[in-house]
Amino acid sequence: MEKKEEVEKDKFAEIKDENLPSNHFSQTDLDREWEIFIKNLARTNTFVYNAISSFKIEKSDENQVTVKYSSEFAKSEFDRISPEFFNHFRHKVSNFKFEIEYATDLTIKKEVMTKRKIFEKFVKINPLLKDLDDLMRFDLS
Question: What is the pLDDT of residues 69-90, one digit of tens each?
């Protein structure tokens, strides 16, 4: 009886990656599932949604997915929920062999635009606005 239990445990321990399906998926499939996941996250967990909503997920190779993030904090929040997303995506496209790579991309960082920053941006375009601000004393706080 003890030998039978050992044999059964070995069956489950030897599930190989080569037996798992690896169907083709496109960037469109990835984008669609990411949008659905983000919309659901916006309803359930707004804190994590705000941290990871600017992430870009790209298919960089046939079996390679690159996740571009803006900060280490946002990545740590994504690490907590990424298994949920990637597990769902693997089942949806029936591809269990793709690997995930992370990359920092500071260009996707969202900047909060205050009234003052917007005004300074327009002053660069039209310097006469600065004179108007001096004359009218706009409240841009």
Answer: 988 888 999 999 999 999 999 9
